[in-house]
Task: inverse folding
């Protein structure tokens, strides 16, 4: 650690960030820790006066690390917008209008534009207009709205609503994800709710990046005629994945090549490596090294501008910039210290980047490659130059995948089995495609060169798509439904590190440690599997404006829903897929609660009419109430275990009198929210046992 001081400081800063995350109210303890750090640091200089260098080094290091840790706590507090008294989070309930600036590149969705607004001021009934800060995500209908521009100033009427927390088990926590970006609210705007006041870009660098990004998009739109190839180039170069064909995206995921579709450290690393190879002759003298460093910095940061200052590219460009400056000034570029320095400054600027999956995957991959790629590559000596190049790329892919697959399983719950087959080809093609795309931007005004570069770019992208598609069609290409909890993730990484060190250094103690960790992990996973095999569970899921009821027995589940899963897979994937994945459901049957005797997939014990549906399962009775008012009058003579109220069937509690008696009443989200809120408020004084998935999240019971 002595040769990597920045690594120590980065770890201390991370400790301070985590400290604030778990204990945000520990102000006095943080101040006390800072005072202790100052005392230790001063004590180190006092010991130096007494000529005790050993004590000096120990006290100075301890004091400095404590001060950096406290710095991490306070920096995180300052980067948490809700701690500001003027933040939107404190006035959202009384807000009637607000003024905001478009401060990011708008995203184009299937039917809407997604725009991030930076709030300047707001108006309430009590105080009128007052200074206000915060960020809001707004959605605009594309049909009657032009694409917004960065820097537009809007006057918005109405109040944004807080972003919902996850309401289903294992659902992606979108609220926490956005809170790490300082966003706590969202709003769907009608045309009459928005008024354009002017144009005032807040950051000239972001404005420049926006213009460069839009220019690059116009060039690729004109040069690449095929929508399929355009979508891939747009994703790889500009970071916009909205135009990618969904089936093609699944092919990239199955082949283990989906990482090339997100602008990241891989792309920056390819450009950096290409510049080192092409301009390597400039490393002969000190002045030439400075020229090389300047050229590398200009190219890297121009690419950052092209991507619209993507956070992932900014992180990677910052990391490689440290390496470039070290090489240009003749300093020894020790990789752990370079990683530590880049992480330190990135987290100092944005401490919440620590919780980003992209940040974690980038640094783990680079650290793994730096530590293990060379020993793996040296396992085989290949004299053939072409085969040696293939093995070098394979070793990089192997080590990167080995270092990141625990995090990949933890976040994405899947593992591509053919990554070793696809990645060497993909890496070579991407290494050609990236500089070719940059060259296309540079010569877009030269007729013949423009035509040649666009032709090569389209053909090369088509070859990349074809190689990925062929690999993804191999049997067993993707292991899906893999789950790890945080403790299992830690155990798996400890096992991985111990096993690799036992293999590389031939030390028996590491082998014994790896064996013990393997047994521990195996027992944890076996316990999870046994629990899943014996599960019996009823769930009424949250699905916006829809019904979703599931009955799970072991690894099989029946889902009763009016969601068209085939035509709207995005809703299923976002709200329900992770739930069944966490429960280990391997066979999921989906059916619609319509009273259609010819429908397929009708579960046993299920009967339906237009007014209600009755389901008998494992000795329990589940009633779905569709309608209580109307011409037909129906009643159930027996008490049911669970009554699920749908489609505003209950308007008043008296509607159930003499009709339905249930041990548990559940309102799903096909009911109007104000109606459900009123009925729940009236139920408390009447001692009626009821539940709302909109207010309380999915209803899950086990027996």
Result:
């Amino acid at each position: 650690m002595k040769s990597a001081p920045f690594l120590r400081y980065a770890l201390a800063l991370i400790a301070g960030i985590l400290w604030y995350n778990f204990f945000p109210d520990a102000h006095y303890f943080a101040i006390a820790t800072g005072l202790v750090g100052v005392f230790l640091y001063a004590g180190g200089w006092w010991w130096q006066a007494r000529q005790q260098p050993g004590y000096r080094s120990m006290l100075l290091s301890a004091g400095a690390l404590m001060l950096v840790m406290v710095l991490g706590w306070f920096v995180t507090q300052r980067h948490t917008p809700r701690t500001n008294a003027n933040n939107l989070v404190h006035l959202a309930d009384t807000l009637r209008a607000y003024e905001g600036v478009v401060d990011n590149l708008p995203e184009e969705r299937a039917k809407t534009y997604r725009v991030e607004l930076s709030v300047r001021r707001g108006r309430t009934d009590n105080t009128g207009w007052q200074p206000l800060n915060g960020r809001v995500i707004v959605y605009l209908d594309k049909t009657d709205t032009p694409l917004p521009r960065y820097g537009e100033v809007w006057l918005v009427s109405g109040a944004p609503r807080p972003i919902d927390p996850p309401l289903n088990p294992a659902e992606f926590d979108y609220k926490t994800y956005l809170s790490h970006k300082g966003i706590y609210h969202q709003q769907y705007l009608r045309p009459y709710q928005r008024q354009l006041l002017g144009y005032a870009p807040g950051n000239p660098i972001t404005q420049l990046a926006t213009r460069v990004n839009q220019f690059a998009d116009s060039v690729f739109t004109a040069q690449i005629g095929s929508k399929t190839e355009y979508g891939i180039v747009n994703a790889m170069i500009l970071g916009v994945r909205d135009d990618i064909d969904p089936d093609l995206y699944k092919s990239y995921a199955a082949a283990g090549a989906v990482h090339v579709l997100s602008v990241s450290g891989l792309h920056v690393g390819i450009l950096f490596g290409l510049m080192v190879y092409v301009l390597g002759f400039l490393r002969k003298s000190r002045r030439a090294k400075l020229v090389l460093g300047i050229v590398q910095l200009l190219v890297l940061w121009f690419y950052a501008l092209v991507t619209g200052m993507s956070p992932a590219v900014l992180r990677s460009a910052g990391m490689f910039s440290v390496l470039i400056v070290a090489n240009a000034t003749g300093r020894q570029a020790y990789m752990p210290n370079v990683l530590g320095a880049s992480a330190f400054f990135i987290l100092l600027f944005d401490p919440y980047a620590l919780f980003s999956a992209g940040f974690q995957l980038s640094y783990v991959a680079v650290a793994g490659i730096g530590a293990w790629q060379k020993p793996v590559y040296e396992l085989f000596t290949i004299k053939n130059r072409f085969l040696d190049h293939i093995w070098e790329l394979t070793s990089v892919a192997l080590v990167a995948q080995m270092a990141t697959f625990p995090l990949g399983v933890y976040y994405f719950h899947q593992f591509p089995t053919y990554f070793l087959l696809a990645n060497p080809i993909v890496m070579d093609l991407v290494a050609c495609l990236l500089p070719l795309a940059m060259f296309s931007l540079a010569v877009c005004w030269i007729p013949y060169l423009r035509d040649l570069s666009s032709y090569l770019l389209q053909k090369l992208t088509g070859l990349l798509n074809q190689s990925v598609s062929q690999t993804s069609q191999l049997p067993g290409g993707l292991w899906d439904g893999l789950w790890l909890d945080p403790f299992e993730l830690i155990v798996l990484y400890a096992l991985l590190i111990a096993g690799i060190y036992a293999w590389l250094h031939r030390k028996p103690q590491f082998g014994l440690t790896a064996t013990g960790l393997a047994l521990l992990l195996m027992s944890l996973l076996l316990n999870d599997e046994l629990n899943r095999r014996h599960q019996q569970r009823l769930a009424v899921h949250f699905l916006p404006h829809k019904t979703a009821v599931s009955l799970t027995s072991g690894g099989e589940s029946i889902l009763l829903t009016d969601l068209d899963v085939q035509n709207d897979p995005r809703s299923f994937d976002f709200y329900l897929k992770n739930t069944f994945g966490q429960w280990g459901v391997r066979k999921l049957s989906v059916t619609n609660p319509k009273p259609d005797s010819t429908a397929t997939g009708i579960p046993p014990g299920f009967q339906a009419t237009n007014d209600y549906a009755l389901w008998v399962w494992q000795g329990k009775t589940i009633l779905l109430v569709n309608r209580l008012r109307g011409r037909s009058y129906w009643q159930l003579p027996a008490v049911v275990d669970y009554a699920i109220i749908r489609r505003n069937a209950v308007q008043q509690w008296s509607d159930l009198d003499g009709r339905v008696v249930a041990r548990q009443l559940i309102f799903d989200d096909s009911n109007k929210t104000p109606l459900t809120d009123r009925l729940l408020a009236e139920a408390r004084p009447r001692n009626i046992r009821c539940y709302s998935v909109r207010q309380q999240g999915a209803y899950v019971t086990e027996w």
